[in-house]
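User: Sequence recovery, please. Input:
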């Protein structure tokens, strides 16, 4: 094997097909089962998009009503999951809580067995996917509340997914503007073909391991700041800079230290992330709603300065970080929010990969010592 054959990071390598989403850097577009994500974000509740990712079609009114009934029936934080979360130190990273909670849910589903194929039909894995989708908001909301010394809030059956998520987190009747912006963010975060965490889930599934193990692995991959952890890192950068007038000097120093500026750049999109305009519009509604022109000024100043200097464009994490901050989520809660959205895409890919039944096992080029033998 020679160097030209080696594609570090699998950059640009097509490893399989998928029918779930199409990321097209040439047209800077993203389709979920053929629908432009911008249209879905502007017209659909997140529940309908989750249904689309799993089933391949948008639900009709009766199908959505039935799906909502199932989702609402599985929202409450199970006692054993809460007990497991309560054992985790308050200063642990919330992604460790989420990873642990998913693991406890999986371990408790003893019918899951050890394989996606032996014991789990696509229908059984779909049921498990919906239950994880329904359970994650309470896990994420409780994580933030316990770190603030606040009590768990029970879900409300009269609220849809996004409004209930906000209710369980903040304990206040959520404003329609905020619900809409949050709903859009969840749809935009839901799915993105073979990103690192989704591919991790597919690799785990390809060995015929179980759906929960695949999601736990995906949570681990998403935690990294080069991937899902970037939305949290964007707020740390905003906190460092403080205000728009500091951007130039801050960027001078950061680039001199060869720092990666979180929220910018993308492995696939090289002329801008197709999701950013929709999430930026949602951020703009929140800036107006909370009367925070300072956030818009800092956002615009950093974007224009960095793009001018490096020609590297914002990704979805750049607008979503300040949006979640304005809504009131703790910075450490941002990547768990990404999990709550992406669990739909992850599990859709688990079901697709399980059907492919093809072990993922690439090659490596050995560069260690030539063969040698123990002396004496
Ligand atoms: C997500 O894959 C997906 O679909 C992911 C995602 C999804 O929905 O699942 O879209 C979600 O993970 C978005 C990305 C979030 N990560 C960040 O915002 C972290 C900051 N971004 C960079 O680390 C970087 O842009 C990556 C990792 C996202 C992509 O990097 P690539 O494609 O591997 O490109 P690269 O790292 O080789 O960069 C090429 C050049 C390098 O300069 P040189 O070493 O060649 O001189 O551009 C530079 C990089 O240093 N560069 C950056 C930069 N991004 C690239 N320099 C400073 N800041 C950055 N953000």
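Assistant: Recovered sequence (376 residues):
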């Amino acid at each position: 094997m020679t160097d030209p054959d080696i594609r570090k990071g699998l950059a640009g390598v097509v490893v399989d097909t998928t029918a779930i989403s199409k990321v097209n850097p040439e047209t800077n577009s993203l389709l979920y089962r053929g629908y432009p994500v911008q249209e879905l974000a502007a017209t659909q509740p997140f529940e309908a998009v989750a249904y689309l990712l799993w089933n391949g079609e948008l639900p009709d009114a009766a199908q959505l009503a039935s799906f909502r009934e199932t989702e609402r029936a599985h929202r409450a934080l199970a006692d054993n999951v809460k007990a497991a979360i309560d054992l985790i130190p308050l200063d642990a990273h919330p992604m460790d809580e989420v990873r642990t909670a998913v693991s406890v849910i999986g371990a408790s589903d003893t019918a899951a067995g050890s394989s996606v194929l032996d014991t789990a039909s696509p229908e059984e894995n779909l049921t498990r996917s919906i239950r994880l989708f329904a359970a994650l908001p309470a896990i994420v909301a409780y994580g933030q509340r316990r770190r603030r010394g606040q009590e768990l809030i029970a879900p409300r059956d009269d609220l849809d997914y996004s409004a209930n998520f906000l209710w369980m987190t903040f304990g206040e009747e959520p404003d329609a503007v905020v619900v809409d912006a949050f709903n859009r963010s969840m749809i935009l975060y839901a799915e993105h073909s073979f990103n690192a965490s989704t591919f991790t889930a597919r690799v785990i599934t390809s060995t015929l391991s179980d759906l929960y193990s695949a999601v736990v692995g995906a949570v681990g991959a998403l935690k990294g700041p080069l991937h899902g952890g970037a939305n949290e890192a964007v707020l740390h950068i905003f906190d460092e800079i403080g205000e728009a007038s500091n951007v130039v000097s801050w960027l001078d120093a950061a680039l001199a230290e060869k720092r990666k500026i979180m929220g910018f750049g993308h492995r696939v999109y090289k002329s801008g992330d197709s999701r950013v305009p929709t999430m930026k519009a949602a951020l703009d509604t929140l800036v107006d709603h909370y009367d925070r022109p300072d956030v818009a000024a800092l956002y615009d100043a950093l974007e224009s300065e960095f793009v001018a200097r490096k020609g590297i464009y914002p990704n979805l994490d750049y607008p979503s970080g300040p949006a979640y901050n304005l809504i009131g989520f703790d910075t450490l809660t941002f990547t768990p929010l990404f999990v709550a959205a992406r669990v739909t895409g992850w599990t859709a890919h688990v079901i697709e990969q399980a059907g492919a039944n093809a072990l993922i096992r690439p090659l490596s080029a050995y560069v260690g010592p030539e063969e040698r033998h123990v002396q004496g």
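The chain has a mean pLDDT of 95.
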